[in-house]
Amino acid sequence: MAIIAKDPKKPRWHTIITDQKGVPEKEKFAIEYVMLDLEKDANLRDNILTATGMGDERKEQFNIGAQDKEVLEMCIMGWKNLKDDEEKDVVYDRKNIDWLPPKIREEIIRVIKGESPVSAARKKEMKDDLN
User: Is residue 8 packed enough to be buried (19+ CB in 10 Å), middle (13-18) or exposed (0-12)?
Assistant: First the structure.
């Protein structure tokens, strides 16, 4: 069977799974995004590790958090149904990405990178919530 490839630059929509149990479909939070293309992915991977010094003075730092922030900023193109605590719309803007809760950001990053929308640990947690 052939591999079906999708244009990485073509915007697409993903309805968030996390924390939306019982929410009517038309009211669910969804994002518009572009996939992480080869160039963006390569640039991010090149910056994962920062190393300074040599020998005993060598220090290494993994920049995973910074990488996740860049993925969100580069790839989210819009969203719908994000409300603040007063039920007012939070309009999409790169500076408003901070409004996204950590569990939602995790799901978005996984989708953008082409992984399963929810990690195995989150699936178990969600299943436990249903029981």
Answer: middle
pLDDT band with cut points at 50, 70 and 90 for residue 49: confident
Please state the domain extents for the chain: 12-50+59-130
Place of tokens 């244009």: 7
The C-alpha atoms of residue 48 and residue 68 are separated, in whole angstroms, by: 10
Give the integer Cα–Cα distance in Å for 32 and 15. 9
Q: What is the pTM of this model?
A: 0.73
Beta partners for residue 89, in sequence order: 83
Residue 50's φ and ψ, nearest 5 degrees, are -110, 125
Give the chain as a 3 state SS string.
CCCCCCCCCCCEEEECCCCCCCCCHHHCCEEEECCCCHHHHHHHHHCCEEEECCHHHCEEEECHHHHHHHHHHHHEEEEECCECCCCCECCCCHHHHHHCCHHHHHHHHHHHCCCCCCCHHHHHHHHHHHC
pLDDT value of position 88:
95
